């Protein structure tokens, strides 16, 4: 039973996070993460987003789509 719940969370959580990411990117008028490096994204988030929880969530999902992220294909769901 615990495995089933864990598996369900693994499947559902990324879709919720990606939806949240899109909303946060629109809210803060974020640049396209595919055209930025991970360092540029970190600097942009630290200078533009004041809410700590939003900043952490936004940085995490934008770095997953960053141009220089070596795990981009796995994280971005391609």
Compose a concise summary of this entry:
The chain has four helices and no strands.
Note down, in words, how this protein is organized:
This protein is an all-alpha fold and 78 residues long. Helices cover 71% and strands 0% of the residues. It contains four helices and no strands. α1 (2-27) packs across α3 and α2 packs antiparallel against α3 (52-64). The longest helix is centred in the first third of the chain and has 26 residues, at 2-27. It starts with a helix and ends with a helix. The model is unreliable at 9-18 (pLDDT under 50).
Radius of gyration: 14 Å
Shape: globular
Number of strands: 0
Structural class: mainly alpha
What is the oligomer described by this structure? single chain
- Sequence stretches where pLDDT stays below 50 over 5 or more residues: 9-18
Helix content: over 70%
Amount of beta strand:
under 5%
Largest sheet: none
The tally of helices reads 4
Q: What is the distance, rounded to the nearest whole angstrom, between the alpha carbons of the first and last residues?
A: 30 Å
Descriptive keywords:
78 residues, mainly alpha, 4 helices, 71% helix, 0% strand, globular
Topology diagram in text:
Layout lengths: L1 H26 L10 H11 L3 H13 L7 H5 L2
Helix pairs in contact: 1-3, 2-3
């Amino acid at each position: 039973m615990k495995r089933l719940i864990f598996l369900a969370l693994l499947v559902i959580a990324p879709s919720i996070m990606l939806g949240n990411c899109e909303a946060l990117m629109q809210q803060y008028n974020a640049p396209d993460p595919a055209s930025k490096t991970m360092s540029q994204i970190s600097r942009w988030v630290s200078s533009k987003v004041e809410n700590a929880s939003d900043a952490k969530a936004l940085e995490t999902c934008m770095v997953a789509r960053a141009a220089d992220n070596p795990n981009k294909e796995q994280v971005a769901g391609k």
